[in-house]
Amino acid sequence: MLSKRVIACLDVRDGLVVKGINFEGLRSAGDPAELARRYNIEGIDELVILDITATIERRRAFADTIHAVARELFIPLAVGGGIRTEDDAAAAVEAGADKVGINTAALSNPDLITTLAGRYGSQAVIVAIDAKRAGSGFAVYARSGQAAANRDAVEWAREAEERGAGEILLTSIDRDGTKVGFDCEMTAAVSKAVSIPVIASGGAGGLEDFVDVFTRGAADAALAASIFHYAETSVHALKQHLQQRGIPVRL
Amino acid sequence: MIALVDYRAGNLTSVRKALAAVQADVFTPEQPEQLSKASGIIVPGVGHFAATRNLDRSWVEAVLDSLGEGKPLLGICLGMQWMFEGSDEAPDLPGLGLFAGRCYRLRASGPSEASQPLKIPHVGWNNLAFRREDSIVEGVPEGSQVYFTHSYVAPITGDTVASTEHGETFASVVQRGQVAGVQFHPEKSGEVGLRILRNFVQLAG
């Protein structure tokens, strides 16, 4: 039976892992390669490295950081942040990324999804969607949550799948960094609307939040950053808890 | 020396890195004739079966010649599917036919109110259930989890070493003699994956 994946996200700025609350107020949480090594030993299923300032400052994700993390890691590695063109994606893949995540660039140029899927296969293309609640729907935002995209998350996820995305990384802007739990309603709405896997992100606080998002939220994977970085919850303890609650995991 | 065949079906960086981690000497042949220098051949690949079109007759002959000389062959993901008779994904293209049967698409659960819809592609970590032992999985414990990402699968046959379940049961490890295939990505499957690559490198001597 397919396991639910637990993914650690390393938000990287200037070569260091940082984590903000609602995308602001960053504090340093360490060296990416060191964290990656620790998570791998603890049994993390996958890693995401995000260059969190890349979109705003128009920088490309640091190839050195990717390379340093990829060197000793034999689990899937996704890279996002600042990937605007096919060349940006190629640089990330060359540095060792198995998957690239595109967000703002996919919104402004949806053909990029198809182009990357054609070149690297759909399995290598993650469309990242940042969304917040808006009435009964979920409004999509670009540029690290700063610009309304005038799209609904469910409809945009469907289009991304049709265009060749292999996975959706769905982040709740409302919940990001708040530790009050994932937005299970939003996750379920998107997950049930597409046939590709959906990674839930934003709001992980405690062990039960993951149980919730894997059951009520119908998530295929859940991503967290700060609760792992500050060792509030070890990956291993989380997976043991999930297993006890009847959720299939890799232990 | 292991020949890693690049037929432009996905990026080979991760496979190269994992082979380096198990101390294998690897080269990527430019021409089919260079397979004669190899002690073993790996055909990786991810993506659409149509990509195997790049493995034209000269490559097929060179691979079969190497097999005739007793060199081991490992197919990974699409590379494994290529070793079957063909795939519904590209019905006009023949596979190598080293294993009997055709590859077919996993069936999604379809639009439903199911609380946990069955997703296709099959992406993530899943179990290996062994049907028999063989050299490619030596030292790999029953129930080990490995990383998959694919939509098409190979049928269960007498050559199936391990099977995996995702809505239905399919072949995740196959082997007959010197020819082996894995549907998952050993280069992305942690210690279990490295063990399998090490087993192959040892077969290659």
Write a structural description:
The complex is a heterodimer of chains A (251) and B (205). Chain A has 251 residues and is an alpha/beta fold. Chain A contains eleven helices and twelve strands. Chain A has an eight-stranded parallel barrel, surrounded by seven helices. In chain A, a hairpin with a 2-residue loop joins strand 1 and strand 2. In chain A, helix 1 packs parallel to helix 3. The relative contact order of chain A is 0.15. By secondary structure, chain B is an alpha/beta fold. An eight-stranded mixed β-sheet of chain B has the order 2-1-3-4-13-12-11-8. In chain B, strands 5-6-10 form a three-stranded mixed β-sheet, with no helix packed on it. In chain B, strands 7-9 form a two-stranded antiparallel sheet. The longest helix of chain B has 15 residues. Classes of the chains: A alpha/beta (251), B alpha/beta (205). Chains A and B meet through loops of A and helix 1, strand 7, strand 9 and helix 4 of B.
Strand content of chain B: 25-35%
Number of E-state strands of chain A: 12
Strand order of the largest sheet of chain B: 2-1-3-4-13-12-11-8
User: Which of globular, elongated, flat, extended, rod-shaped describes the shape of chain B?
Assistant: globular
Helix-strand category of chain A: alpha/beta
Structural class computed from helices and strand pairing of chain B: alpha/beta
What is Rg of chain B? 16 Å
Largest interface, by Cβ-Cβ below 8 angstroms: which chains and how many residues each?
A-B, 34 and 38 residues
Count of strand segments of chain B: 13
- Considering DSSP H and I runs of 4 or more, what fraction of the residues of chain A is helical? 25-40%
Q: List the secondary-structure elements of chain A in sequence, H or E.
A: EEEHEHHEHEHHEEEHEHEHEHH
Give the N-to-C terminal Cα separation of chain B.
9 Å
